[in-house]
Amino acid sequence: MADHAMLRAMKRETVLALNALNQAFYASIAPEWTETRKSAWPGFARTYQLASQPLRVLDVGAGDGRFGAWLRAHASPAPREYLGLDASERLLAFARARELGAGYRFQQLDFLADEPAPPQWPAGPFDLIVLLGVLHHVPSFAARAQLLERLAQLVAAGGTLALTFWRLDRDPRFAKRLRSFADHAIPEADLEPGDYLLGWGTAGPTRYCHFPDARETEALIASARWPVHARFHADGRGGELNEYVLLRRP
Fold this sequence. Notes:
Layout: H1 12-36, H2 42-50, E1 56-60, H3 66-74, E2 81-86, H4 89-97, E3 104-108, E4 126-131, H5 141-152, E5 155-166, H6 174-177, E6 178-179, E7 195-199, E8 206-210, H7 214-223, E9 228-234, E10 242-248
Parallel strand pairs: 1-2, 1-4, 2-3, 4-5
Antiparallel strand pairs: 5-10, 6-7, 7-8, 9-10
Helix pairs in contact: 1-4, 5-7
């Protein structure tokens, strides 16, 4: 396992190149992505049940608005305000087309590309902040840790920060999706342990994904500072594809 405290910082140009690769990926497959991912994750319901009556919800990496749609249809008590953020305008177009009604908004924010100028995060506090299927798309341990540390400060007292770790390496189809960094002129020497490129189908576009080992997972959880309130696995055929970690701000 990697000692993440000893990792040298990923080069800025590499972070931007990987982020651009993912933005191009979602821009090219947004309709197919939305069409093939209509079902809510089973972990949505448990996450919301474990949160303490969230009146204000921030969904970071909202994509096509699937979690927002689940809230609108199933959450009880319903949140008073929901804000979904995502870097992809094409995915957000599908989210807005859901027309979830008053109190549900979507906003474009690419917190990686906007640096070194500070990203314009919405004003907190929020009772529930979720990062569902997001962290594996954030290049570099430093950026992942900084994201969690920043979002933790937007959580209200007694509120919840919920994040998922995608455990795709447990899926036997994982190896078939791997692609080469050399095809995108990204030197592997600039990467960190757990960095991969995954293809969409046999000849589709490619995206960057990171799968943390056990030590990094714990280091990332610690970077948010708040104590773990709940931890469980859900989703996928075997119910093990995502590890959910819910942190509660005292």
